[in-house]
Amino acid sequence: MNEGPNALLLAVIGVAIMLAGYFLYSKYLSKKVFKLNAEFKTPAHAFNDGTDYVPTNKFVLWGHHFTSVAGAAPIVGPAIAVIWGWLPAFLWVVFGTVLFAGMHDLGSLWASVRNKGQSLGSLSGRYIGPRGRNLFLVVIFFLLMMVIAAFATITADLLVASPTAVIPTWGALIVAVFVGQAMYRYNWNLPIVTVVGVAALCVLVPLGDRFPLAIPEGVLGLPATTWWIIILFVYGAVASLLPVWVLMQPRDYINGLQLFIGLGLLYASFVIATPTVVAPAINNNVPADTPSLMPLLFVTIACGAISGFHGTVSSGTTAKQIDRETDGRFVGYFGAVGEGLLALGAILVTTAGFRTFEEWEEIYSSFENGGVEVFVQAGGTLVNQGLGLPESLSATILATMAVLFAATTMDTAVRLQRYVVQEIAEVFNLKIGMYTATAISVGVCIALTFSAGADGSGGVLIWPLFGTTNQLLAALTLGIVVVMLMRKGRPFLPALIPMVFVLFVSMFALILQVGQFYNEGNWLLFGLDIIILVAAVWVMLEAILAMVRTKKLDPEPEDEQLLTEDEKLPVGTPRR
C-alpha cells in the first residue's frame, strides 16, 4: 500500500483547528449566543455550602472538569474506530470537538449555571415538561450505571495488566489530599502548590515502574480483578461523599496537569520521531465482524467528539463550582478541546505507532481488538523512539494516564448518580439523604458488575449500549439548550444543527442495535435498548413541542442577580 501522511502534519493540522475553535468560535458563543456575564451571581456563590457548592479558581476547576469528563473513552473509542481508516476518525474528532463538543459542554454548563446549578433532569422538567423530566432521568440513570460499572471493570483490568501503574494511581490520592488542604485550609500560593503537587506525581511514575505492585491471584478464593473492583467501589463511594474540595477537585486538578504533561510527551514524540501513519486513510478491507462506518463511527467515538456524559458533569458538579460565569468558556469549551487533543493523540498513536501496515493490520484483524492496550503498547514504542525513554517507563506513563482518566470519571459518575437517585426519589415525593442515595447508586452498579461472575465481566455487559445512549443524551441535552436559547430570544442554530445530526446518527445506531440484539437472542440488551429508544423519542417529541410553544412566547427576562464586591474571588485564589 502507499505510504501514509506524517503523523506530525496531522497533529499540527488537528491542534491548529481545535485552538482556532477555542479562540474564535467559543468567543462568538460566549458573547453572542450565551452572553456570559462576569458579574452574574453563580450558584457557587448563591448556595456556597463548602461541600458541593464551592467558588473555585477556573484553572483548578478546569482540571476537575477535564479529568472527570475525559475518562478512558476518548482513548478507547478512537483506538477502535481507526479500523475504518484514520481519515474518518480524524475528521470527526477535530470538527466534532470544535462545532459539537464545545457547544454542548459550554451550553449545558451555562444552562445549569443560569438555573441554580440544577441538573439536566431538573432542567428538562422546567423547559420540556414533567413527562420529559421523568424519562430524561431514566436515560441518565442507565448511562451513569453503564459508566460506573464498566469503568470499574476497565480500571481494575488496567491495574492487573499494568502493576507498574498501581503506585502512581493510588499515590496520587495522598498527594491530592495534601494539595486540597494547602489550597483551601492554609491558603498557600496556587502556583507553588501546583509545582509541588505535580512534581510529587511525576516522582511516583518512575517509582511505580521500579516497584510494580500486584494483588496475588486467589486471595480468599477471588481473582485480583475482583479485589480491585471492590476497592474501587469503596473509594468511589467515599470520594463522592467527601466535600468536593477535600479530594475530588484537587486530585482532578493535579491529575489534569499530569495528564497534560503525558499528552505533551506524546505530542513531543510526534515532533521528534516524525512517524508515518501506516494505516490506510479509508480501510476498504475491514474484518468481517466490523459494522458499517455509518452510523457506528459517530457513536464509537463519543468522548473526544461529543458526549452526553459531559452534560451530566457540567450540570452535576462543575456548575456548582463556577466562580464567574465567564469562566465557563475556559472550563467548558476548552475542557472539550482538552479531550479532543487526547482523542487526536489516540488516533495518531494507533495508526503511526507501528513499523509497517502489516503489523497494524495484524492487530486490527478484528473489530474487538482495538482499545487501551493498543494505545499503551503503540504509544510506549513512539515515546521510546521520540524521547529515548525506556519502553517500560513509557508504557507506565501511558498506562497511568489511562487508569487515572478512568478512575476519575468513575468516582465523579458515582457522585452524579447520587444526585440522580435523589431526583428520582423526589418524583415519588420521597426525600432521601446523600448516604442512602450513594448506597443505592453503588449497590445497583456492584450488582451489575458481578452479575456475570466474580471477574466483573457484568460491568461491560451493557457496554454495547453506552455509545448510542451517550450520544442520545447529548442530543437531548442540546434540545434543552435550544429551548432555553429560544426562550431568551438568542441565536439557536449553533445548538440546533448539532442536535439534529447527533440525534439522527444515534437513533439510527440504536435501531440497528435493536435488530442485532434480537437476532442474537440477547434479551437483556434488547429490552434495555427498547426502553432507552422509547424514552429518548418521547423526550425529543416533548422538546420539539416545547420549541413550538416557545415561538409563541415573549422572550423571558434575564436574571439580574449579580455578585457583590465581597463575593468576587481575587484572580488565582481558590476558596471554599
Would you kindly provide a written description of the structure presented here, covering whatever features stand out?
The structure is a single chain. By secondary structure, this protein is mainly alpha-helical. The chain has one domain: Hydantoin permease (Orthogonal Bundle), CATH 1.10.4160. 70% of the residues lie in helices and 0% in strands. The protein has 21 helices and no strands. The protein is globular and about 65 Å long.
Distinctive features:
21 helices; Hydantoin permease; 576 residues; 70% helix; single chain
Helices and strands, with pairings:
Elements lengths: L6 H27 L9 H4 L11 H13 L2 H9 L4 H28 L6 H8 L2 H32 L4 H20 L4 H21 L13 H18 L6 H26 L19 H8 L7 H9 L10 H26 L4 H7 L8 H16 L3 H37 L6 H16 L16 H22 L5 H28 L2 H28 L26
Helix pairs in contact: 1-5, 1-14, 3-11, 3-14, 3-17, 4-14, 5-13, 5-14, 5-19, 6-7, 6-19, 7-10, 7-17, 7-18, 7-19, 7-21, 8-9, 8-11, 9-11, 9-17, 10-17, 10-18, 11-14, 11-16, 11-17, 12-20, 13-19, 14-16, 16-17, 17-18, 19-20, 19-21, 20-21
Total helices: the number is 21
Tell me the fraction of residues in β-strands, as a range: under 5%
CATH topology type: Hydantoin permease
CATH class descriptor name: Mainly Alpha
- Number of DSSP-assigned strands: 0
